[in-house]
Amino acid sequence: MTRLKRIAIDAFGGDHAPKEIVLGAIEAAKEMKDVHLTLVGDEERIRQELAAAGDVKLNNLAVRHASEVIGADEEPVRAVRRKKDASMVVAASMVREGEAEALVSAGNTGALMAAGLLVVGRMRGIERPALAPMIPTMDGVGTLALDLGANMDATAAQLTQYAVMGSVYRSKVHGIREPRVGLLNVGTEPGKGNEVAKEAYPMLEAAPIRFVGNVEARDILNGVCDVLVCDGFAGNVMLKSLEGTALALMGELKKEFTKNLVRKLAAAILLPGLRGLKNKLDYKEVGAAPMLGLSGVVMKSHGSSDARAIKNAVRQTVLALESDVVGTIAAELRKGD
Asked: How far from the centroid of its chain's Cα atoms is residue 139's Cα?
């Protein structure tokens, strides 16, 4: 018999909460019978959204009341400490107390990291947890990049921890036998980069991973590595640059293909390929990024997540639970003690 996975969902995190979060949870609960989802937040408003969706009654979908919400512009640590009854904090407490095995939120990234550290707890042997989203690549495989915003700075030792965690995640969750790990740098030669990158290089070579050396940002979309290691500042700048370029490119293609009848006909022929390209670059297809290094599974969805993104976030969370990512990372770290 398949084990039931218990997942808490922050129903009030994200730009389109609670409506899209509730709709996504409904879709996930209908499609995935091996999960039990708990929507956390203002119970009355959640019930209203459930009623608006057709008075949905699902045995694997529940509601947990939380009276407060952490806003996108609030200072993360202060908000988590002061708002004990915030939806995100209550959901994190459910993971800590064993009422849920995982947390999904599209809310304030800094607050989610703070809730992960202060409520769920940090994994032994990890100095700083890392946010690890997938960057789409042209071969469709993608690159797991960490850290992409949880910590602005990182030491060489922390970069090495990121590499080990990322390698385990890609192996266990995505089934890649020996994930290739690259270090984001300004050149591919071993001596390139700032002092931290130079110090990290030999440490990564000695780590229990398949380290393929330095990687330049221009090569990421070509799939040169399965795991990309970097500090949160450089990683977030790179991610936003890629997102901006993709949006601008798709916008220009749309304008060009709608200028006249001939181009519209050409667009109709190319439409399947263009849709495939759009899906490769669409965060909604991935759903959520793990915050690796915490003692429980915590998944961060994009702030603009809609119902489809939330449903896919639940699917990613189920994979992480089935693969016992937390336990496997902890075991790998113990080997180095």
From this structure: 20
